[in-house]
């Protein structure tokens, strides 16, 4: 399947916008197709460490520990774009990791999902997915996963509808692998472009009509308190144009392409 990834040559030229930084930490806008740390030499961590090593002013601004280097504080799937928090000092990494474990960090996503999801009648517009999930990833036919399942909560709000799709804002309140993608699939509204959990028919349709198959899930904002600040820092990455264009181009409702496995 024609799922977009970034080649070794492209990683030498890829732009990684730094949204904000402080002593021992930085937030960048990760593009789709780059692994965070599972592709040595080509992944996000490798690219950033090369950049810091080559930019003395950046290294000084970060007060980067040359032995610890840059490390990701949390996960972001290869296929997902958006904000990711990294640390380059061990004590800062420990502080931010603890904040994540204590649920003191707010992560907000925007996604385009299949079908017409009804909006909530509540004043704030929020709804909740609360299906239990396993720690490890599931699959198309068993998104909840095999083995012991644990409490899992995703808050979401309908933003808009197109012909076939719904755009939602969502916030994972727990931290299971692929949580938003799995909950969306169980709800009957798989994330558009999700090769793992979406239907094969929907993937074929995207490749045939768009020429590619990008996951329509974007980490839009991250709110946290770093150790060098007294007030929360809220960082934001704009939704990719390709995702917005797919949604705006979908004007005619001629059927749901995610109905068949």
Topology:
Blueprint: H1 8-11, E1 18-22, E2 25-30, H2 44-54, H3 56-62, E3 71-72, E4 81-87, H4 90-101, E5 106-114, E6 126-129, E7 154-161, E8 165-172, H5 179-186, H6 200-210, E9 217-224, E10 233-236, H7 241-249
Parallel strand pairs: 4-9
Antiparallel strand pairs: 1-2, 2-4, 3-4, 5-8, 5-9, 6-7, 7-8, 9-10
As a whole number of angstroms, the C-alpha radius of gyration is: 19 Å
CATH topology: Pseudouridine synthase
Gross morphology is: globular
Helix content: 10-25%
CATH class: Alpha Beta
* Total number of beta strands: 10
The SSE string, one letter per element, is: HEEHHEEHEEEEHHEEH
Strand content: 15-25%
Mean pLDDT: 91
| Residue windows where pLDDT falls under 50 for at least 5 positions | 253-261
Tell me the count of domains: 1
The biggest beta sheet reads:
10 strands, mixed
Give me the CATH architecture, please.
2-Layer Sandwich
**Number of helical elements:** 7
What is the structural class? alpha+beta
Tell me the name of the CATH homologous superfamily. Answer: Pseudouridine synthase
Q: Report the end-to-end length measured between terminal Cα atoms.
A: 16 Å
